[in-house]
Amino acid sequence: MRQDKIFIKLRKNQTVFPVEHLHENLLSLEFSGEGVEELPEAIGHCHKLETLVITALNVEWLPKSIAQLPALKILKIKANISHLFEIPPDWSNLQTLQINHSSLKSIPHWIKNFSQLETLNLSHNKLMQAPPEIIQLPNLRRLNLEHNQIKTFPFDPQQLIALNHLSLDDNPISDDEKARIERTFGIWF
Fold this sequence. Notes:
The protein is mainly beta. Helix content is 6%, strand content 19%. It has one domain (5-185): Ribonuclease Inhibitor (Leucine-rich repeat, LRR (right-handed beta-alpha superhelix)). It contains 1 helix and 8 strands; from the N terminus they run E-E-E-E-E-E-E-E-H. It has an 8-stranded parallel sheet with strand order 1-2-3-4-5-6-7-8, with no helix packed on it. The radius of gyration is 17 Å and the shape is globular. The chain starts with a strand and ends with a helix.
């Protein structure tokens, strides 16, 4: 009998993703593997996958097949990726996107297509600015941009109506900009 939820944790010396556990009816996959450098395209064959959590710090890119997971609601990635897909993914049901402890310097414009997105966590990256597309996310409630290289947050609450949690700590934001953000959003650093 195949499970609809799988958690795979590999030892440090294991370097190959165990594709034999993947199947088309899989709903949730959590994977952790320090030695793995490449994720298999076979993940994209799990068309019913709703939750995908990947912790693999040696992985530098995501297989293109992951972009074709239409049921995906939660995507959490902790890997050393430096860029995302050029073609917009088919993630119309995505509610949580977390890509942290990576090397992202920018976010593709297609993020604006995720109208169901409620949580966006891009902490611990190399972002130079907050993604301007966030103002086109009507359901965005939680935004975490901690530990990046962001110097300003040029938005106001009217642009982010649903937002009720904003984290910008450990960015090189000037004291004047911090004061403006504190007044505007009612948060403090």
